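User: Some background: our group keeps a shared notebook of sequences we're curious about, and every so often someone picks one and asks for a predicted structure to add to the entry. Today it's my turn. The entry only has the sequence so far, pasted here. Could you supply the structure so I can complete it?
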Amino acid sequence: MNNNQKDIEVKRAVYERMKKSTIVTFFLWFFFGSFGVHRYYLGRPLSGTFLLFTSIICYGLFYISIFQMKDPGYGPLVILMPTIWLLVDIFLLRSMTAKYNFQLHEEIMELVDEIE
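Assistant: Of course. Here's the predicted structure to add to the notebook entry:
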């Protein structure tokens, strides 16, 4: 095996070890979606944090409006924001995972080229 083939094998091994799985992403979305865990997993901490705080605020307002007030009024409407975000996310998960993996591949190629 020559040096070039070894480099290719090393790049492939590093990529396989670090890439993100679409199945794991869907699993995280399904069970922990309101907490934004799937976005943290894909390297998007800002939107994950925003989703987390949006969910906390909206679910808190929902709780207050349903259980603390006699007229729930806006309660059911408040819950729509994180729900719509999560429903949109289900259609974006595959492309977000692919984008993360593509960027990872590019970074690995750049790092290995810099080393050489």
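Suggested note for the entry: DSSP finds six helices and no strands in the chain. The helical segments are 3-18, 22-32, 37-41, 45-68, 75-78, 80-115.
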